[in-house]
């Protein structure tokens, strides 16, 4: 296709920005990390499809979500920033999308592009999708397969079923029953969003339950969604097509995946005592907290409450002597984004931490299994990769680097955090991509006392 030869997008044209996390004094204080990324994307997307207005508070204003906001505007929604994290979306309704003149550019974000591909599939428009060099490397076949089965046309596509690509949707797709071949909330969500444009029932079956924000928020916007258990760890989700979605208020809780960084920092830096407030405690997102507690972490869950359909709590975290544990593969979907920072905690723990079933880490913003292993090697930490398992042997951390971050925000943040508990510091080659998910990471960590320069 013609646009396949064009350059990938990049909001980071300048030279790479290296940084070093250094041995830090005790971290102290209280912070609220930014809004949850998964919920933020979905609030905008459902706002686009809803009639009337959607008011969002606490929206994550990171680059990934801002790209989704731009895409919603390009498809016809009126998207307005009213203040800090406060946004208003005037939707076009489930039949009102307009075809954008330019390709929608999702930068670094797999969630943004995959969910939007599903959403557009159920609408009678032709839309081109693109992203940065990292996103262009990521697999889109996992989403295209079910969408094509439902009747969407792939008009153009780069080699290997990757971006850039163009889809033509239809408001009379075929409702299907789809068993996801990999545990992926993005694939599940893409099929459900396409199912909005299919008469009858679209059913997604997952062998291992993944984050359920799409199901919860679709219900909140007025769709008919039924969720039943399936097997030992899975779910069966049934959506009735052609609902009338109505704008609804969304208050985005703090992102547990971003909180993971100051949380692990507090655990590994001696003397630390940190309070993380307003964290979303959705059980399909809290695998890291469970694992760290098993490792001996002093994490106190305070003030648990229900807000906007999600359990929210404050976490008090104190420095702890961690010991290695085995993390079972079935826990992976509930902590899929947290393995890089768990590896940092494991490097500081006593004994071996065995993380099983990490195949999905290979297709994130980078091949995270390789990037974590290489980063640990650059810091002189004993580890091995056996198939899809990562085994880290903890002990005193000397430090090192530079760690190659491969356009991956979580690799950059994880190794900076490890540096805070090291003798000589850990440097990373580029911190620019941290802005995709946690734009306030540096000032927030420094505010707690972390030395990062
Ligand atoms: C997300 C799903 C996960 C996760 C990503 C956000 C979502 O990806 O890694 O950061 O919001 O649906 P997969 O669905 O590919 O596992």
Strand content: 25-35%
Low-pLDDT residue intervals, each spanning 5 or more residues: 1-5
The coarse silhouette is globular
Helix count equals 13
Describe this structure in words.
The protein is an alpha/beta fold. It has 2 domains: 217 residues, UDP-n-acetylglucosamine1-carboxyvinyl-transferase, Chain (Alpha-beta prism); 215 residues, Alpha-beta prism (UDP-n-acetylglucosamine1-carboxyvinyl-transferase, Chain), CATH 3.65.10.10. It is built from 13 helices and 24 strands. The strands form 6 sheets. The chain has a 4-stranded mixed β-sheet with strand order 22-23-1-24. The protein has a 4-stranded mixed β-sheet with strand order 2-15-17-16. A hairpin with a 2-residue loop joins strand 20 and strand 21. Helix 1 packs parallel to helix 3. It is globular and about 60 Å long.
Overview in brief:
By secondary structure, the protein is α/β, with parallel strands linked by helices. Helix content is 29%, strand content 26%. Shikimate-3-phosphate binds at residues 38, 111, 184-186, 189, 211, 336-337, 360.
């Amino acid at each position: 296709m013609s646009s396949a030869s064009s350059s990938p997008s990049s909001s980071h044209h300048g030279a790479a920005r290296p940084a070093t996390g250094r041995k830090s004094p005790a971290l102290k204080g209280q912070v609220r990390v930014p809004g949850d990324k998964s919920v933020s994307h979905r609030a905008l997307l459902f706002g686009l499809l809803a009639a009337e207005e959607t008011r969002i508070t606490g929206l994550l204003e990171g680059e990934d979500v801002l790209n989704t906001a731009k895409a919603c505007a390009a498809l016809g929604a009126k998207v307005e920033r009213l203040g800090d994290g406060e946004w208003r979306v005037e939707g076009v309704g489930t039949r009102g999308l307009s075809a954008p003149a330019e390709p929608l550019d999702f930068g670094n974000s797999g969630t943004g592009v995959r969910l939007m591909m599903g959403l557009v599939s159920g609408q009678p428009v032709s839309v081109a999708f693109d992203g940065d060099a990292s996103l262009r490397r990521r697999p889109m076949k996992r989403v295209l397969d079910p969408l094509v089965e439902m009747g969407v046309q792939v008009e153009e596509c780069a080699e290997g079923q990757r971006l850039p690509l163009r889809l033509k949707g239809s408001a009379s797709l075929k409702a299907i029953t789809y068993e996801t071949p990999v545990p992926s909330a993005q694939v599940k969500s893409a099929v459900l969003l396409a199912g909005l444009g299919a008469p009858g029932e679209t059913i997604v079956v997952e062998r291992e339950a993944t984050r359920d924000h799409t199901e919860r928020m679709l219900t909140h916007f007025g769709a008919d969604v039924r969720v039943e258990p399936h097997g030992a760890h899975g779910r069966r989700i049934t959506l009735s097509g052609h609902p009338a979605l109505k704008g609804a208020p969304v208050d985005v809780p703090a992102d547990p995946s971003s909180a993971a960084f100051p949380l692990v920092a507090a655990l590994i830096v001696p003397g630390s005592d940190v309070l993380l407030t307003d964290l979303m405690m959705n059980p399909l997102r809290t695998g890291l907290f469970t694992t760290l507690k098993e490792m001996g972490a002093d994490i106190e869950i305070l003030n648990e409450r229900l807000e906007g359909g999600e359990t929210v709590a404050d976490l008090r975290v104190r420095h702890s002597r961690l010991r290695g544990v085995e993390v079972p593969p079935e826990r992976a979907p509930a902590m899929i984004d947290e393995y890089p920072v768990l590896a940092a905690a494991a490097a500081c723990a006593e004994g071996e931490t065995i993380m099983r079933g990490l195949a999905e880490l290979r297709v994130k913003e980078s091949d995270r299994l390789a990037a974590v292993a290489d980063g640990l090697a650059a810091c002189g930490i004993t580890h091995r990769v056996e198939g899809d398992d990562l085994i880290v042997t903890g002990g005193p951390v000397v430090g090192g680097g530079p760690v190659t971050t491969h356009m991956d925000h979580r690799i950059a943040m994880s190794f900076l955090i490890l540096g805070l508990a090291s003798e000589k510091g850990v440097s990373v080659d580029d911190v620019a991509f941290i802005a995709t998910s946690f734009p306030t990471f540096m000032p927030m960590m420094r505010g707690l006392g972390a030395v990062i320069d």
